[in-house]
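ARCHIVE CARD
CATEGORY: sequence design from structure
SOURCE FIELD: tokenized fold
FIELD CONTENT:
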């Protein structure tokens, strides 16, 4: 999770919402890492999770990440949760909960939908305080 927090800090420094994501294999080797790039790419789908999942799949040369863990500093939104399912990641670990925009424990609850074909293991609240503080600080500075 430290690497995901590093990505979130770097995203904030670039003026992006501070969310970072890392994909590791089953032995903990980092396959990819990314921070949000929505503003830089002018692309609302350039969330950290999407970028990290795509990069890991490219590295592997495979669309499935069945032995991988997605580490992310914020509860994935519905788009990113669905992507984690489509990439068939083994596990999703996230930091801060997102009652407004989350798609795992809040909102759409993608993994409990009958239309979800792959349900990863989910662990929420890992380094939640640090992840939430990054987001609060970022948005407070913009107000």
């Amino acid at each position: 999770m430290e690497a995901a927090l590093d990505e979130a800090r770097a995203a904030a420094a670039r003026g992006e919402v501070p969310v970072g994501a890392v994909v590791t294999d089953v032995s903990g080797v980092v396959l990819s890492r990314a921070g949000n790039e929505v503003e830089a790419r002018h692309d609302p789908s350039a969330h950290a999770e999407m970028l990290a999942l795509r990069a890991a799949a490219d590295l592997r040369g495979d669309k499935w990440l069945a032995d991988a863990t997605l580490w992310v500093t914020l509860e994935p939104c519905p788009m990113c949760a669905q992507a984690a399912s489509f990439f068939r990641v083994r596990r999703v670990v996230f930091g801060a909960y997102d009652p407004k925009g989350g798609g795992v424990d809040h909102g759409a609850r993608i993994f409990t939908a009958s239309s979800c074909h792959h349900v990863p293991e989910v662990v929420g609240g890992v380094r939640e305080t640090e992840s939430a503080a990054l987001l609060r600080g970022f948005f407070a500075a913009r107000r």
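CARD ANNOTATION: The chain is about 35% helix and 20% strand. The chain has a mean pLDDT of 97.
SHELF: design records, drawer C
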